[in-house]
């Protein structure tokens, strides 16, 4: 197999990262995807930094063994806490792409955005990674961050586009610190599935930024620069999870927009 035909490895704490995988699939249909959802440890948002780093390294090693030509960390929590360690382990052998840096660059490239809101898991918000990275490059921008820990498990259980999700979403977004934002970063790859509800809360008057399309464009740019874009139609994708239920498999269609088959792969035996 030539280098260009090797797969893109993507991982997340669960199936939320399938929103990123789907965006990559739509933009780069020739690329084969190997996806790993660490459902046994989902959500990463309430795990220690040490645990998240360990999980990221184990999954990264697995994707390396699958001969992936690039690895995408499709998880904000793992991107904020596991990226540096994984990148050090890879030692430049292949590109390692996180979901945070491309999103920050996107914000900075849009000069009209002045007041940025960020919602995500407890771990992502506690890391303060978005505010830190944004202000390192433009200290005049205002950044307000809010932990929204109920949203990811709510989405995983299929509770969205209903009264339950609307109540929870509105409760979070009504917080004072998010009142004056002109853009809201969905700093969790589950959140694109409730993007419509979030947009409706703001009467569609602010920019709602999810990382899927932004990261997909960045992946295309990196692979093109390194001459790694596939020129042949992708062979079968592979999707792995570290824990499995049949109902869970059905819900993957919401994230990937087409039915996929999940294979159980326990990296922690």
How many DSSP helices? 12
The helix-strand sequence is: EHEHEHHEHEHHEHHEHEHEHE
Top CATH class of the largest domain: Alpha Beta
Strand ordering within the main sheet:
4-3-1-2-9-10
Mind telling me the C-alpha Rg? 18 Å
Report the major sheet: 6 strands, parallel
CATH architecture annotation name of the largest domain: 3-Layer(aba) Sandwich
Unreliable stretches covering 5 or more consecutive residues: none
Distance between the termini: 30 Å
How many domains? The number is 2
Say how many strands there are: 10
User: Which band does the percent of strand residues land in?
Assistant: 15-25%
Helical content band:
40-55%
What is the CATH topology classification name of the largest domain? Rossmann fold
Summing up helix and strand content along with how strands pair, one would put the structural category as alpha/beta
Q: What is the general shape?
A: globular
Whole-number average pLDDT? 91
What does this protein structure show overall?
The chain is an alpha/beta fold and about 270 residues long. The protein folds into 2 domains: about 5-100 and about 215-265, Rossmann fold, CATH 3.40.50.1860; about 100-210, Rossmann fold (3-Layer(aba) Sandwich), CATH 3.40.50. It is built from 12 helices and 10 strands. A 6-stranded parallel β-sheet has the order 4-3-1-2-9-10, sandwiched between helices. Strands 6-5-7-8 form a 4-stranded parallel β-sheet, with helices on both faces. Strand 7 (about 185), helix 10 and strand 8 form a beta-alpha-beta unit.
């Amino acid at each position: 197999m030539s280098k260009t035909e090797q797969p893109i490895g993507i991982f997340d704490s669960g199936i939320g990262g399938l929103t990123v995988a789907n965006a990559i699939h739509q933009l780069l249909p020739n690329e084969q995807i190997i996806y790993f959802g660490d459902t046994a440890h989902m959500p990463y948002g309430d795990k220690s930094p040490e645990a998240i780093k360990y999980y990221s390294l184990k999954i990264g090693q697995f994707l390396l063994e699958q001969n992936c030509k690039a690895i995408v960390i499709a998880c904000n929590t793992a991107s904020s806490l596991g990226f540096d360690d994984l990148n050090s382990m890879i030692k430049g052998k292949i590109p390692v792409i996180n979901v945070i840096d491309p999103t920050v660059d996107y914000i900075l490239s849009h000069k009209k955005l002045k007041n940025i809101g960020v919602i995500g898991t407890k771990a992502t918000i506690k890391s303060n990674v978005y505010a830190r990275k944004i202000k390192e490059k433009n200290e005049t921008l205002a950044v307000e961050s809010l932990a929204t820990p109920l949203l990811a498990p709510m989405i995983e259980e299929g509770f969205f586009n209903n009264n339950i999700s609307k109540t929870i979403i509105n409760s979070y977004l009504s917080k004072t610190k998010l009142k004056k934002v002109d853009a809201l970063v969905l700093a969790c790859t589950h959140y694109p599935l409730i993007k419509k509800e979030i947009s409706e809360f703001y009467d569609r008057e602010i920019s709602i930024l999810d990382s899927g399309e932004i990261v997909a464009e960045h992946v295309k740019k990196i692979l093109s620069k390194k001459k790694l874009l596939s020129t042949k139609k992708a062979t079968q994708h592979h999707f792995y999870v570290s824990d499995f239920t049949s109902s869970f498999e059905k819900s993957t269609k919401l994230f990937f927009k087409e039915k996929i088959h999940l294979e159980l792969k326990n990296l922690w035996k």
